[in-house]
Amino acid sequence: QTGSIIGKVLDEHDLPLPGATIIVEGSGKATQTDADGNYKINSVVFGNVSVTARFVGYNSMTKKGMVSNQPLKLDFELLPNNKSLEEVVVIGYGSVNRKDLTGSVSTVSSKDFQKGTITTPDQLIQGKVAGVSITSNGGNPGASATIRIRGGASLNASNDPLIVVDGNPLSGDEIKGVSNVLSLINPNDIETFTILKDANATAIYGSRASNGVILITTKKGSNGKPQVNFSTNNSIATIAKKVDILSSDQIREYVHTNGTINQIELLGNHNTDWQDIIFREAFTTDNNLSISGSIKTIPYRISTGYINQNGVLLTDNMQRGVAGLNLSPKLFDQHLKIDLNVKGSLSKSHFGDHGAMGAAISFDPTQPVLSIGNGFGDYFEWLSGNVPNPNTPRNPLGLLEQRENIGKTQRSFGNLQLDYSLHFLPELHVNFNFGYDVAKGKGYTKISEHAASNYSTRGFYQDYGNKLDNYFVEGYLNYTKDIKEINSNINAVVGYGYYDNKSTFYNYKSFNALGGILSTPNFDFDVPQNRLLSYYGRLIYTLSNKYIVSGTLRADGSSKFSEDSRWGYFPSAAFTWRINQEGFLQGQSSISDLKLRLSYGETGNKDGIANYSYIPNYYLTTGESQYQIGDTFYQTYTPISYDAELKWETTQTYNAGIDYGFLDNRITGSIDAYIKKTKDLLAVVEIPVGTNFNNQILTNVGNMENKGIEVNLNFEAIKKNNLTWNVGVNGAYNDNKVTNLSLVGDNTVPQSARNATGGTGNSIQYHSVGYSPFAFYVYKQVYDTNGKPLEGLYEDLNGDGIINTNDMYLYKSPVPKCILGFNTSLTVNKLTFTTVLRANIGNYIYDNIGSNLGTKRNIISPSGNINNAGTDVYNTNFTVNQYNSDYYVKNASFLKMDNLGVSYAFGSLIKGINSNLSVAANCQNVFVISKYKGVDPENFTGIDYTLYPRPRTFTLGVNFQF
Amino acid sequence: CNKDLLNLKPTNDITADEVYKDLDGYKRAFVKIYASFALTGGGGAGSGDLGGIDAGQSDFLRLYWNIQQLTSDETLCAWNDPGIPDMNFGMPASDNVMIKGLYARSIYQITLANEFLRESTEAKLNSRNIPAADREKIAQFRTEARFLRAYQYWILIDLFGNPIFVTEDNVISKNAPKQIFRADLFAYIESELLEIQNELADPKTNEYGRADKAVAWTLLAKLYLNAEVYLGKGKGKYTEAVTYAKKVIDAGYQLAPIYKNLFLIDNNVTSKSEIIFTINYDGEKSQNFGGTTFIINSLINADMNPGSYGVPSGGWGGNRAVSLLPTLFNTADKRAMFYGDKADNEEYSLFTDGLAITKFKNMSSTGTAGASHDGTFSSLDFPLMRLADVYLMYAEAILRGGTGVPQGDALIYFNKVRERAYGNTSGNLTTVSLDDILDERSRELYFEGYRRTDLIRFEKFTGSNYLWPWKGGLKEGKAIESFRTLLPIPSSEIIANPNITPNPGY
Fold it and tell me: What CATH architecture applies to the domain B16-496?
């Protein structure tokens, strides 16, 4: 005889929790709650049962009862848990329960995401994960971000982590017409981020995993009747801080004091704040609608969104429309699981000329914005005779308004995953995954014929565009078996993967504004392509639920290397001890989880380098690079430098970690220590001249080391029905240094890595053995008794009586030693307060605004004009630029409040219909505390010139679901 | 199957066999060796053949010109870019970017020549079925490739003394080449030039821009005139210098009638009789920020009406005269082309402290501007070798003891140069000394990239017997050490190549 179980699952606000899983223990029966949080399970055999309700991010709860003729009613009230041990964590080619994890893995689920105006997925987890640094590359709409997991492992190859969306590994290739490929993924579709950090976790991704892996899982459909979710976020962004430059009166005073009569005559009588002219308060609206439910037995979720974001820089704008579909039916008695994901997006952007920001801080504030009738579109310009003076900045407003740069992109990516558990051997799963990522971007740049910036060519017009065609096929077998007799569990995977990444770049003629041809490309297009073939396997063996041993091996063959060095083999091994399962800790109620993890693994890297660097080839020079012999101009054939022996860069990672949970997992967290050693670095280095067609080539040279410690702690400080308070803290220390950088012998001489703006070839950052990559290489400034720097006077560090380049030294680096994150949420009844703070410690920044503009020769220019400069010029009083003084290297440690928000959940407003309305107000980029006086101490490159200001944003959001 | 899946080829780049499939391909690879004189790279003005140096300053002429001029008593650069102040003072260090750049550029051109020689052997021509009719032309290309290689080895022997040595026998590999020492390199350059001189085209018969016999003879004259510098005191080869200078003089060249036309864009017409060898530029088709674009723009400032120099968007305000240079000129000397009102070089970093030079223009003799893509690039072909220099070398070699010609030729040819400068014989001298030659070389060849070599040959570059403003880093001038007659081997090379011993003193 059978009966049924019914009930309802509510969350901490007593709101229905749709999509929660209900399992009748030991019966194999399970279901999910519908949109109202209700569930019903039929055909349960009479008798005592225990029923468990589970939901991602919540503590699961088990209740007992007896099934009889009357339906058994069991209601659940789940409380959120930062780290549920039973939570299923995706690990690449499968998933495991959190308690069985053997690698260093962090997850962030949607309830913990950053709030407010979020336009790209990476912004969701900023500051949330120990050892993961996410630095936006500016505040422009859809700006890209630089993501580093445990520092960078490479010099010239990619340092970006692999991003996998629902099993679809994205190529990361550029798409024209959009500033960030990730911005084409709707943040609202994302359910969880899983970050794989150590080699045991990442080695299954082999060659692509040296820089860590970010697995993104998108939201899926749920059983039950349709649930509709609509949200709208509307925000105003303002620039938080302007560059501190001289006012018009200060410029007048400076020129009167230091200039000649002729120079004083150049001054205007206006008071123009050029930064006010080019920046604005920018409005953004972001609207999302999703419906999920199931049609018969097919769960579905469809979503759509539209965002229209203005940049704080005039004319900057991004519009994006997105749509997504997920179908996740389970057929044949749940033996065949199908997961279909299709996402599409359209975007249209207008890119303002970011050069206007540099012009705005250097343009003379005593001049007017407009000069009617001057022939340059009425924008005031410095002239030399009747043409624009070539050595002066151009009118900042003119740069913006006389240029049109519109980019449009279309992108779709998706995959179909089939997981079949054999009827006769259900422990064995056959999994196929087919996916694609295709995109098309195009746009044009058009500059007016009257624009002073393009005076000599009479304007400019050029199309641009490219296309991505990425496809992959993966297939694997997964065998999972509990062997009760020996108290063991085996989880084995073997698989194959094929990945084809192809781009097509179109080359277009350029014209002036009148249609005259300026340049003609040699080839209409180029099709860089690379392929990867992979075989992989993993075995996880668990004994007595206490001891877990796992090993992985991946073999990767890449088209980027020659047949002889094509294949890389990447093994890993790990041992995990669940200490809390040991007898001596049983009955010890305060320790709810304690796990020791030890792992070693090797991973590879071949991303970020050109596709054909091992092949000797020639290229045809362009039409601008011809040479005249006789009366004929020749496009010449030029041999390309190459390294026939190019091979994989490999990183060995040692990791030791502890996962802990105390007081019934109210306090959870982990501590990890690691050493990452990269060898055969893919780096561009000096080679003996005459051995190749360049004095530098990309080759495998040198070693690099990252050592670090990561700690994170989550604390449910208060856990009551109407009052919860959660605190999350994470911190990471990473020490990153180059340990060898030469093909022969010892090499202690720094190699130039990045230039400062200004002059020619002013390299400021260098790679050098014993130091972080991109360390500053400078002279040691001498100061007078008042602490003012003395121009051109540096310390004779080697004591040879001469000040020359032998006295330069490596001083600090832009890489922070410590990255800290803090987040907390406090819920009182229906009101929730959240905030996220981040801090970087030990990062230094080069004040390039000061070094390039803060000189007398810049303000009173020999080119016959006046320029502006930062107020730092009052401190230095330099006459000419001293680019390589360590005076300009500044401590940029900072504490930022990223986000401060409050939300109110009204709950169901309409009688009889289960619905929820919530409103939220958020401020992003609330404050920054730093000794650094520039606009923003957070700068990935460490060279502060004209970073697009990250705005302070005020968002009002409404979310309605029914 | 896997192998085929993973063997991918680029779309537009091609293999050596595809390049060298016919005469046209051979020519395009051959012209690249010449193009390396003028261009920084193959993908427009911002592209570079070399690494570790700003592309714009990585061409041959800009690097060579800077080293020859800035270290001398003629030129001061106002920019504070890395390496420039040290160069102004005559004391560049081994990590100086211009030194690294020129060393790499010279050897790059040698490597291109070597590659061409490897790909044009008899065996390769056979395997590619190149028709017999085309082989004569390819043989001519080979000879000129060897000349260009010898020319760059001359640059290296003159400036660096003891560079690495690679020929077509060194294939592309990771094997570091060996160093060659000055005397051995002298012998090599000499033997190469002597061997190819008769295989080159007769003077003035080759295509414009290509080397002929007179070009090789001019280089031999330079090599021999400086032999005492390269080989040591008492090892001069002045008779040989006289011999090869005379061969050039007898080959039918004449001084161009008007001095200033040599540095205008139609110099290939107006001064054809004088110019022996050029580096060719075009402001549309050969865009780059080096070469004559650099020379013209760096010599003028934006407030000097750049449009009248054919570069309306140019004027970089960098290089101007050391105060001694204007004093060399008599007012009747038409070669003096200065601008400005302050000759004193009070501040070396201020462009207007010193007279600007208005000698080079992207303009024709009739006043039309040359092609210029963006109002900055120049179409002025640079006269790398010209007859006036050969006359002065001839005169100098005679005065230094060269024989086989009448001694009186020294004064005759010296005065020919002055006659053109004055427009008549009023400036002629009745006797000529070596010091007269050195001064005359400055008057005739100033800002053309000769000066450092000349000062070293006359033993005035180092030491304190001759000072000029900012020599050694002081306004009034200061002695610099004698080892500085050789540039340092770049530190990047010393690190990368274990076979290299640094030059003495560095």
Answer: Alpha Horseshoe (1.25)
